[in-house]
Structure to design on (876 residues):
């Protein structure tokens, strides 16, 4: 019995260790919702600590949002590209931290991808907006009103000339007069048929792009003053375009003959948001200078606030250098419009009233809310991403779905486990019950290892868990059948136990090792969910081997001295 | 005396291999068809592999699938797949799937907006959204394929070392047979092949392999006792009969557990458990009728073990 000492010691040690690491998890999940709330209120630090220590459930089980972003390095030089992904990750971490999500995960995956996991998030669309934008803030000057009107006139004339060449459809489509196209008049007219914008969104989406037969204009574009009839002079600077006609304007602006007319130092830019004017959804279009006067990197702080008209604004503070630049810019351009450009779109175009030094404010365009101002402040504080990111995977799992699958899954698993226990106890009597204890230990050890590894429990992970428990059952069945066989052959209890274990061992080891190989290959080469499966499978199988070889063996070694064996 | 389901048996498994081969060939053919369909994008592959957008949610009132389809088609989603999911708490739960288009990842929003617009009086509550870029899907498909191929290779090498090459190859082929059979059956049942199902299939490959190794282990043990060529088939038959009680016992235990999971495990676990259930039945069958018989036939064609006698 002396030789058994270390085995028993090891088992006890592992059991105590597993329970120690599992205690926070058990503690947390046994708490009633009311008790949780109370703890979160009375002992917030302890609550956070408990949540950190407890085993985490994967997004597939608890709900939340998972984004995979690809960093677009195409416009970076090799020097910038080398650490762009790491810098982007840091900036995203800052943004997410400020957004306030418990236990976010932000990790680089495979070179140029960043995975962001936000468990239990309530407003995924807003989070996506916040994370996905580059947040490149630029201050530019707008082109003067006269120059803008002149350019649009020139484009109109060029387009009219182009349409005149088109003999097949010229002048046939008389219904599409500018007034009916709904730019100027209907925009401010009381209530027209156009107010039903909803059905037109769908129509605009199905519109086919311009046919590539040279200069021909598509029939939706008016023949007379093609561009200016679609544009409506806005109150301030720039124009307004009815949302349904935005694709038409974009189509015109993308034409090579139109592009040739635009001077090289200016460009058309769209506004960030749509807004409602006279019951119509409109977007703003600006003609701005290409030159960047000041960049967001000079910002030291940004805060959401309201202006005197109760409109949301973001007030910002600049560095000393930025302040000097800004003072020079604003001082030289009083009474001229300034374009605040965010990720290539014009957020707003306030007129410069006076020389501004290191404190300024961004008027939010369109139908912006205070929340929008707050989000903009967050991204401005965290800084712009070194390169644009594309959302290449977006997964939102509703909490109800996760909750439903957890409770049903757990109930079913417990019931299934109970069936296994019953069958084992019924068929193998006391030996079966010993195997059941081994199986329970197996489960506790595996959960303990998962807790030590800070692993997240996901659905594929549970699959790996089930497989390893199944293998543990199988190992016991193999041993018991072998012992029975040896006893039938007339061996004594002592010899039958020894022979049973020894002879079953080669099959047990081989089957476990092959599964370990599978798990290892899946871990090294698999991604995401497959990896989660591989981790639980690997440890589950390793522990199953241990319980089969060591744990139940200890008990059976004690039973060797018996005359009969309950098996 | 211990309670036993079956006593000592002496069934001639190896003699019944011709019908088994035909059956297995059919299963494999079905599986290959499923794989071909998956490659050509015709099978019900999950969007994690194909790329695309999936929106799941429920309407508060009854909704006509035809109207829903038309609404989506008007918004440009002519190819949208609409499935009404049964067995959920909410009776009007729908799953909408749209194909991936390069550079487009905001489709879930458009789908939701369209629904809001065409069903203004019937609130649609979104449960989950999954948008996957086409490139991501391709990568995952490739990675999964490599991982599975390498794990099978690893098994082949291990069994070749521990037993011999013929065992290794037979076990690998038999495991492959099981994987293909389950894929084929799921293709017929039109179950979505997603990452969860792939992990179920990997799990069953693991089970199936355990089973084969157990049978081989006994064959290896028994072959040491037999030395004449005429005894070869006898030795293998006896090995299978000897491990039969273990096979049935393990099978019963695990199947009991899985049947419960299929019946009460809820929608997420159901497909998973069903894959395992099928896999265990097919895997147990193939341990005997594919892995062992293949070994016998190989030995019959080109004797190695009994060349001397």
């Amino acid at each position: 019995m002396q030789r058994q000492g270390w085995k028993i010691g090891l088992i006890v040690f592992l059991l105590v260790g597993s329970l120690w690491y599992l205690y926070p998890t058990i503690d947390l999940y046994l708490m009633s919702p009311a008790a949780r709330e109370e703890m979160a209120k009375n002992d917030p630090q302890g609550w956070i600590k408990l949540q950190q220590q407890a085993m985490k459930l994967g997004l597939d089980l608890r709900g939340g949002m998972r984004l995979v972003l690809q960093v677009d390095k195409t416009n970076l030089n090799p020097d910038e590209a080398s650490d762009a992904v790491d810098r982007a990750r840091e900036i995203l971490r800052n943004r997410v931290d400020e957004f306030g999500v418990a236990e976010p995960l932000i990790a680089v995956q495979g070179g140029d991808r960043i995975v962001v996991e936000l468990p239990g998030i309530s407003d995924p669309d807003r989070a996506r907006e916040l994370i996905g934008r580059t947040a490149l803030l630029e201050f530019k000057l707008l082109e003067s009103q006269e120059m803008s009107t002149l350019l649009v006139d020139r484009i109109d004339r060029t387009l009219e000339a182009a349409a005149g060449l088109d003999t097949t459809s010229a002048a046939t489509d008389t219904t599409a007069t500018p007034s009916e196209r709904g730019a100027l008049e209907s925009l401010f007219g009381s209530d027209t048929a156009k107010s039903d914008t909803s059905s037109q969104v769908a129509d605009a989406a199905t519109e086919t792009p311009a046919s590539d037969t040279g200069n021909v204009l598509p029939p939706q574009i008016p023949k007379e003053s093609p561009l200016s009839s679609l544009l409506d002079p806005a109150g301030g600077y720039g124009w307004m375009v009815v949302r349904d006609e935005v694709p038409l304007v974009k189509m015109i602006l993308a034409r090579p003959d139109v592009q040739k007319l635009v001077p090289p130092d200016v460009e058309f830019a769209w506004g960030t948001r749509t807004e409602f004017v006279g019951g119509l959804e409109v977007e703003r279009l600006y003609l701005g200078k290409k030159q960047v006067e000041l960049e967001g990197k000079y910002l030291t702080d940004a805060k959401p606030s309201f202006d005197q008209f109760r409109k949301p604004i973001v007030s910002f503070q600049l560095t000393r250098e930025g302040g000097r630049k800004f003072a020079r810019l604003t001082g030289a351009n009083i009474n001229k419009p300034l374009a605040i450009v965010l990720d290539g779109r014009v957020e707003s175009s306030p007129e410069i009233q006076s020389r501004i030094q290191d404190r300024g404010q961004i008027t939010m365009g369109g139908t912006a809310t205070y929340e929008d101002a707050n989000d903009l402040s967050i991204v401005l504080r965290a800084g712009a991403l070194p390169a644009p990111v594309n959302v290449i995977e977006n997964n939102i799992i509703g909490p109800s779905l996760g909750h439903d699958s957890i409770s049903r899954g757990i109930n079913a698993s417990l019931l299934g486990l109970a069936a296994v226990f019953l069958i084992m106890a019924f068929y193998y009597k006391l030996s079966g019950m010993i195997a059941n204890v081994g199986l329970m230990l197996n489960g506790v050890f595996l959960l303990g290892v998962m807790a030590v590894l800070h692993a997240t429990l996901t659905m594929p992970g549970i699959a790996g868990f089930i497989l390893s428990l199944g293998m543990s059952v199988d190992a016991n069945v193999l041993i018991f059948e072998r012992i029975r066989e040896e006893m039938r052959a007339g061996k004594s209890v002592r010899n039958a136990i020894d022979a049973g274990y020894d002879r079953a061992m080669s099959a047990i080891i081989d089957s476990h090792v092959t599964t370990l190989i599978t798990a290892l290959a899946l871990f090294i080469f698999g991604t995401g969910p497959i990896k989660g499966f591989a981790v639980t499978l690997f440890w589950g199988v390793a522990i199953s081997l241990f319980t089969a070889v060591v744990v139940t063996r200890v008990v059976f070694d004690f039973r060797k001295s018996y005359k009969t064996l309950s098996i | 005396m211990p309670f036993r389901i079956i006593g000592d048996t002496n069934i001639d498994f190896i003699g019944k291999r011709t019908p088994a081969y035909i059956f297995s060939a059919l299963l494999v053919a079905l599986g290959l068809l499923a794989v071909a369909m998956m490659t050509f994008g015709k099978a019900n592959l999950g969007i994690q592999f194909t790329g695309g957008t999936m929106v799941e949610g429920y309407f508060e009132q009854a909704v006509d699938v035809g109207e829903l389809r038309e609404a989506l088609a008007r918004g440009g989603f002519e190819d949208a797949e609409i499935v009404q999911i049964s067995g959920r708490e909410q009776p009007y739960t729908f799953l909408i799937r749209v194909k991936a288009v390069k550079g487009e990842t905001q489709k879930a929003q458009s789908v939701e907006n369209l629904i809001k617009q065409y069903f203004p009086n019937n609130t649609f509550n979104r449960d989950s959204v999954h948008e996957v870029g086409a490139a991501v899907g391709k990568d995952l498909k490739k990675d999964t394929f490599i991982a599975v191929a390498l794990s099978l290779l690893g098994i082949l090498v291990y069994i070749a070392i521990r037993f011999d090459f013929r065992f290794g190859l037979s076990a690998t082929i038999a495991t492959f047979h099981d994987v293909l059979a389950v894929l084929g059956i799921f293709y017929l049942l039109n179950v979505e092949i997603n990452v969860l199902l792939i992990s179920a299939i990997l799990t069953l490959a693991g089970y199936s392999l355990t089973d084969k190794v157990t049978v081989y282990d006994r064959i290896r043990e028994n072959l040491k006792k037999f030395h004449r060529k005429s005894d070869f088939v006898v030795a293998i038959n006896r090995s299978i009969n000897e491990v039969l009680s273990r096979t049935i016992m393990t099978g019963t235990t695990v199947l009991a557990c899985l049947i419960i999971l299929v019946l009460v495990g809820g929608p997420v676990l159901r497909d998973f458990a069903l894959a395992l259930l099928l896999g265990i039945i097919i895997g147990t069958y193939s341990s005997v009728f594919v892995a062992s018989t293949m070994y016998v036939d190989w030995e019959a064609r080109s004797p190695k073990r009994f060349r001397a006698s």
